[in-house]
Amino acid sequence: MPIVSAGDARVDYQVRGSGTGLLFVHGTGFGAEGTWGHLADAFADGRSVLLPDLSGCGATEDDGTELTVERLAAQVIGVIEDNGGEPVDLVGFSLGSVVSATVAATRPDLVRRLVLTAGWAGPEDEYLRNLMTVWRSLAGDADAFGRFGTMTAFSRTFLNTVGREQLEGIIQGNQPSEGALRHIDLNLRADIRGLLPRIESETLVIGCTLDATVPVEHSRELHAAIANSSYAELESGHVVVYEKPAEFVKLVRDFIDKP
């Protein structure tokens, strides 16, 4: 897989397919493959699908210090530039939405269309602050960390549908890795409210009505703050890419493929 230097990081990323660039930015803890791997091929016909691992995930390496949204945005920018520097369609999920919005606001020349899924703009929501604080506090108990993260990431309907064996596998995969804890620390501080009015790219904001991690009101606020944006909601918990994959793919494809 290609590796590109971006700031203090060596960013590892995948490329699938060929054509106009389509870059997916993952969320907290889980890297590109864990977030997007099961969906990437649905976009690879006529597209060059770019899947970077941000600091804290996969084989990407950095100095291990405190993360900022700007540092992660620089990593995404580095991947775009490493692939020719032509504008890409940029799709973010959760923390990846915060990073993607930052890229679009600061480097409009690199973003054609923008999709922000289950994201947020600032740290002022006490619910979000307390949820991230509790999750972070469970780092010393891997089982509790995984169960809390899974319980808030998925809707009750989804949890009761997948079966106990698969659910236990999801919990085991949700571990308090150093990278995940660095991401949670950033989630508590991230603030892009001042950047949102600078976004020029045509934008689709996707909210999840059953989201217990980042309540859907945050997506509605992103839509309200971005002038050239449209809005859609899916009846899903936070991790909509697993709960409603077909519906998510259709929303994104209809948006990025329209004339």
Automatic annotation (TrEMBL):
Matching entries from Gene3D superfamilies are given as: alpha/beta hydrolase
TM spans (from-to): none
Superkingdom classification of source: Bacteria
Drop me one GO molecular function for this one.
hydrolase activity
Entry keyword Nucleotidyltransferase: no
| Keywords in alphabetical order | Hydrolase
What Pfam families does the annotation carry?
Answer: Abhydrolase_6
Instruction: Give the coiled coil ranges.
Output: none
Keyword presence, Secreted: no
Q: Where is the AB hydrolase-1 domain?
A: 22-250
Q: Which PANTHER family match?
A: HYDROLASE ALPHA/BETA FOLD FAMILY, PIMELOYL-[ACYL-CARRIER PROTEIN] METHYL ESTER ESTERASE
Q: What is this protein called?
A: Alpha/beta hydrolase
Species = Streptomyces sanyensis
